[in-house]
């Protein structure tokens, strides 16, 4: 453990990729009573990353908690253990959040020379991983080693196999704070959760796993309503790939997905191709072009967005970023057309996916926060098309 004192919160100007640093975050102390109540994540970071993380305002924020517990870990048919809902869960409600066991690069590149083979990279990564796990508390070390390992026959050492099986990619989230992190392999980081790494895959998942660096927490939220007793699932592959491609991607995990989409793969593949072909509809440029066009009584853009929304919901793909983007564009379109009630309705759903509000604060406070944020989101677009229509009529 690191006997560190707070105080140095100045973010570095550069990240040293030839230097790795082991650290427990938030800061850990020899006097364990002084440690953060939400727990400690064992980290392997590039030089300078720890300082950048600790320089965030209010770091570390408290890990958000659901007001009413909503899950349990239990056996899942054909999939070992899984996460299940212990009560009805609303769409966008926080199910659970935890401080991860581990945060580290997805793979390690030797500091001397770059021409090395895959076996050398795996061996080097496993040695670094051993050091990090040795630094964990006995309870966290046991929790890590108890996770599933689907890489028993491909040459992966046991600890590295567990990492490959259970890791969530968080490189993009880290780059939001540490902008110097590059794209590509050097910027790929992974986190391991004690409970969230038990979440199994579905090609039509009902939850979204996200990572928040300021609270150093791994979170799972519902993307649609989840019934009591239903298994909570997420994605391990590109959901818009055809079924045969998804199965190839999933094969290293040692299971064959039997979700509804895979059981009815012909019809499902057709719908998913249509969704992929319609991705231009939720782009900012498409909305801006529509906004500049003369207003029409028969508004095709809004109807196209609504059809796309129904198609995504029919496939139970509410996890897609495109689903959130489509609802956001519908909020903007309704606002521009002067339909404020529907604009706020769509905007509230968008806000709900961005931050853990539902299930974290009382319902009365939740409504106030969502309404305020929704009004702020649509405000720049209110009645823009109505104004254009009035201008066209006056010219006529």
From TrEMBL:
InterPro entries: SET_dom (IPR001214), SET_dom_sf (IPR046341), SET_domain_protein (IPR053185), TPR-like_helical_dom_sf (IPR011990). Residues 69-237 form the SET domain. SUPFAM superfamilies: SET domain. This is SET domain-containing protein. It comes from Ceriporiopsis subvermispora (strain B) (White-rot fungus). The lineage of its organism: Eukaryota, Fungi, Dikarya, Basidiomycota, Agaricomycotina.
């Amino acid at each position: 453990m690191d006997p560190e004192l707070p105080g140095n919160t100045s973010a570095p100007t550069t990240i040293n990729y030839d230097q790795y640093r082991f650290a427990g975050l938030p800061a850990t102390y020899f006097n364990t009573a002084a440690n953060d109540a939400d727990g400690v994540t064992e980290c392997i970071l590039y030089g300078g990353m720890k300082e950048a993380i600790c320089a965030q305002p209010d770091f570390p924020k408290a890990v958000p908690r659901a007001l009413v517990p909503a899950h349990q870990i239990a056996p899942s048919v054909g999939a070992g253990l899984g996460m299940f809902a212990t009560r009805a869960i609303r769409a966008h409600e926080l199910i659970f959040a935890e401080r991860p066991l581990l945060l580290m690069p997805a793979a390690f590149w030797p500091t001397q020379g770059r021409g090395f083979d895959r076996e050398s990279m795996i061996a080097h990564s496993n040695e670094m991983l051993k050091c990090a796990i040795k630094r964990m508390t006995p309870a966290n070390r046991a929790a890590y080693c108890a996770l599933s390992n689907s890489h028993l026959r491909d040459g992966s050492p046991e600890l590295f196999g567990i990492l490959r099986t259970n890791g969530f990619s968080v490189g993009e989230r880290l780059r939001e704070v540490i902008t110097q992190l590059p794209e590509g392999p050097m910027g790929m980081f992974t986190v391991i959760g004690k409970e969230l790494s038990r979440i199994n895959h579905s090609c039509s998942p009902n939850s979204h796993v996200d990572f928040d660096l300021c609270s150093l927490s791994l979170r799972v939220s519902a993307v649609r309503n989840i019934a009591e007793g239903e298994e909570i699932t997420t994605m391990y592959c590109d959901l818009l790939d055809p079924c045969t491609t998804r199965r190839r991607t999933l094969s290293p995990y040692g299971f064959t997905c039997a979700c509804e989409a895979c059981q009815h793969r012909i019809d499902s593949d057709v719908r998913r191709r249509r969704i992929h072909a319609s991705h231009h509809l939720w782009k900012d440029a498409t909305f801006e072009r529509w906004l500049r066009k003369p207003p029409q009584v028969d508004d095709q853009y809004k109807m196209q967005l609504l059809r796309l929304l129904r198609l995504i919901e029919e496939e139970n793909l509410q996890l897609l970023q495109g689903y959130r983007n489509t609802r956001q564009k519908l909020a903007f379109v309704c606002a521009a057309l002067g339909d404020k009630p529907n604009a706020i309705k769509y905007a509230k759903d968008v806000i709900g996916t961005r931050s853990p509000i539902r299930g974290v604060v009382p319902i009365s406070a939740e409504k106030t926060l969502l309404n305020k944020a929704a009004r702020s989101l649509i405000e720049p677009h209110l009645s823009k098309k109505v104004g254009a229509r009035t201008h066209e009529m006056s010219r006529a």
